[in-house]
Amino acid sequence: MVSVIIPVHNTDPNWLEVAVISMKAQTLKGIQIILIDDASTNEATIQTLNKLDLDKDVEVIRLEKNAGISGALNIGIANSKFDIIARMDSDDWSLPQRLKLQYDYLIENPEVDLVGTNLEYLHWSGTEWVISGETQHPEIITKEIAKTSLWFLNHPTVMFRKSSVTSVGGYDVTLKGFAEDYELWIRMLRNGKELRNLPEKLLLLRLNPSSLSRNFNPANHQFQIKLQKTL
After folding, report:
1. Which residues in the chain belong to E strands, given as ranges?
2. Strands 32-38 and 2-8, sheet pairing
3. Mean pLDDT of the region 208-231
């Protein structure tokens, strides 16, 4: 079936529990949930991970030294027992049908290496989390699209074939929080991999100000433009 890899680094304990609950509530059953604790130092996060580690449906892998998201993801991939792997961040929420729809799509389309979904944003209003926007990415990702767009996949939503990602070298561990996802997409396209999106919005992404990937970084932007030119 599907292995789900969720990197964790000092995530708010409530958000982390919600993320795991959303995976346990999936309509696709028999999934492997792997939490990669990337050397968390927040005591509340560590206690929550200890509690989750007692859950028979959850596996916690603890890293003594911070590996960054690329390193943590590669470790999760290496420890997955299924060839089909789903990603999610530790502060987001996947809708119950997400994994089933993506898994069925990959089974029905064996030529496809990776499939993402659209998402909706969760914004803190001051009193509660509310939906404040959505994405509308193209269903078929071509080199031509990638040459003109810096954002065509939502990293926390992707499901991919382990063999497809490892065949191009996995995530680049030198890119710690620095367009590691975009760099992988470009490398996959250069190697002839097929990337897709489902039109449905199947994940709620929490707009967390402390998240590296959710803040604009001019250097990151220029790096992405350089990658585009390699296609």
Report:
1. 2-8, 32-38, 58-63, 84-87, 93-94, 114-124, 129-134, 140-141, 159-161, 195-206
2. parallel
3. 71
Residue tagged 């509340």 (tokens): 44
In this model, does residue 196 exceed pLDDT 80?
yes
Answer whether 187's CB lies under 8 Å from 98's CB: no
What is the full DSSP assignment across 24-44?
HT-SS-S-EEEEEEES---HH
CB 95 within 8 A of CB 203: yes
Pick the closest to residue 89 from 69, 105, 75, 110 (CA basis): 69
Q: How far apart are CA 38 and CA 171, in angstroms?
A: 15
C-alpha distances in angstroms, 83 versus 13, 60, 86? 29, 19, 10
pLDDT at 24 over 80: yes
| Pairing mode, strands 114-124 and 159-161 | antiparallel
Tokens of 207: 């707009």
- Each residue's pLDDT tens digit, 108-130: 999 999 999 999 999 888 898 89
Looking at residue 142, its amino acid is: T
Q: Going from the N-terminus, what domains does the chain have, and what CATH number goes with each?
A: 2-228 (3.90.550.10)
135-144 LR contacts (CB < 8 Å, sep 24+):
135/201, 137/197, 138/197, 139/196, 139/197, 139/198, 139/199, 140/196, 140/197, 141/185, 141/189, 141/195, 141/196, 141/197, 143/189, 143/231
List the structure tokens of 92.
């987001």
CB of 183 closer than 8 Å to CB of 228: no
Helices (H) and strands (E) in the chain, counts: 8, 10
Nearest-Å Rg of the Cα atoms of the chain is 17
